[in-house]
Design a protein that fits this description.
241 residues; disordered N terminus; mainly alpha
Length: 241
């Protein structure tokens, strides 16, 4: 007997539902793993706090000097703190074979990879964004810079996680790939750093900072579209080598 033809809309709906289930399953799994490893979770925040605390000691305790340095320094240290956590993004999954199974799954690699990067941002970029105003007080950041700082970090750290995940995927099979990861990722981080810090500085000087935020939003949108594809391809190369 001939099987009845399936409704294309129904098939598409089922595929979309399976993709959504895979996305949520990966998201929940990685969040649980991140919570279990609280020590690794706190490393970027501790690094952020320690470096910003030492800046007044090593440069100058003068509020005027710190206020000038604050936008760039806060952004640079947030960038380095994000970079610090990237090496372990896919490492544990690669070591125990989970990553290979994830790539062989019938579900879209784009969806699974995007879920993993979102967890990285939730456990690294978002906490850094929330802590930044407190450290801004320590750096004598002018009042006009707090909202732009948080908004720019909110957009910028998402791009940093997505871009950094490409480097993490390329170096996941290397036992000591931290230095190579930094060399790959740092040039790609420069535009995000420039527009993030300049947006905060413009707000402090009384100028509009909408343009910088719009550019950061464009970087993030482009990264969400393109980065997971590059990450999935890089992971397949690393796993097959």
């Amino acid at each position: 007997m001939n099987k009845p033809a399936q409704d294309p809309l129904a098939v598409a709906e089922m595929a979309e539902r399976r993709s959504g289930n895979a996305f949520m399953a990966t998201l929940r799994r990685d969040l649980k793993l991140a919570i279990r490893h609280r020590g690794e979770l706190a490393n970027p925040l501790i690094f952020f706090l320690l470096v910003i605390t030492m800046v007044p000691l090593g440069v100058s305790p003068s509020p005027k000097t710190l206020a000038v340095l604050a936008p760039g320094m806060l952004w640079v240290v947030a960038l380095l703190a994000t970079l610090l956590s990237l090496d372990g993004l896919f490492r544990s999954d690669f070591d125990d074979g989970t990553l290979e199974q994830l790539l062989l799954s019938p579900q879209s690699s784009y969806i699974n990879v995007l879920a993993k990067v979102i967890v990285h941002w939730l456990t690294t970029g978002l906490p850094l964004t929330l802590v930044a105003p407190l450290l801004g007080v320590m750096m004598s950041l002018p009042e006009a810079g707090y909202i732009p700082l948080m908004l720019s970090l909110l957009l910028g750290t998402g791009s940093l996680s997505l871009i950094g995940a490409i480097g993490a995927a390329l170096t996941v099979s290397l036992r000591k790939g931290g230095l190579l990861l930094s060399l790959i990722v740092m040039p790609l981080y420069v535009p995000v750093l420039i527009f993030g810090a300049s947006g905060v500085r413009a707000a402090i000087e009384g100028f509009a900072y909408n343009t910088q935020l719009a550019v950061l939003g464009s970087f993030l949108a482009l990264a969400i579209i393109a980065a997971p594809l590059a990450i999935a391809g890089a992971l397949k190369m690393s796993v097959n080598n």
